[in-house]
Amino acid sequence: MLTLENYEYSFKPVRGYWFTWFLIEELRKKSGCFNTTLDLGLTTTFLCIENGLVKINNKSFSIDELMPSEADRVKFVSDKYVFDVVKYTEKGFYKLKATGLDKAPTLEINGIHMHRISGIDPWTDALLKISAAKISRSQVILDTCMGLGYTTIASLRRGASLVYTFEIDEDVVWIAERNPWSRDLEDSRVKIHIGDVTKLITRLPDMYFDRIIHDPPRFTRTTGNLYSLEFYKELYRVLKPRGILFHYTGEPRKHGPPSILKGIKERLEKSGFRVLYFDSKALGFIVVKT
After folding, report:
1. Nearest to residue 110, comparing CAs of 23, 169, 150, 151?
2. 89-98, 217-226, 235-244, 260-269 — which is least confidently predicted?
3. Domain residue ranges in the chain
């Protein structure tokens, strides 16, 4: 039995409409009534533009009022609020970063985005990781680092029966609750835990998960525990025999010394895993528990 009840979190997606510079540029070209996306491409909503005013469900806004304050920001609009989805805290600056008119946004923390966005969109990035892990129906998944939850949600859509995921930063959860692409995290098959996965994983039982997605933040002095031999041993312990771990690394050669990849591979092998290969599309190691 899992002993994480005190860390469980009930995800509460915020309902409303989302505007980006991409959308505003389209709206400036139009008039009359039509359907368009107001949730970054997930669905369409009927609205009207008359005399420079955007009318949605009997409420009117000027186009300038709906414009995000910067080109890559996302503006949230509801019956009560109009604000950019950003948050300033003592830990840093968090931003929901727009990537297109109908594309999943990414999370940016202190100028570093949490998904690949060069030549790829964040949702496709997540799908590549899920495919690399060979996630399929009825599996129980561990998604170590939730972020905006895209790999968790993609796992559900591949048929996973249960996903355990962890997020150490409550400000990240705040952003996710205001991101339409994250709203499926409220699914009952998702178990969100607020806390440090490198510590809470010791509470998980042996050989419980069919697949593990380990998509940690970039290796730094403060995130090193997510790349440690001790943590890899715990991942090995909670994975079922013949289970697959996908360990995202990105392209360290662009951001650090090549030895980072070598060190990750060596520690995975020392923990008991068999490293099959490095997936050049998903940018991570495919690893199996033998």
Report:
1. 169
2. 217-226
3. 17-109, 116-288
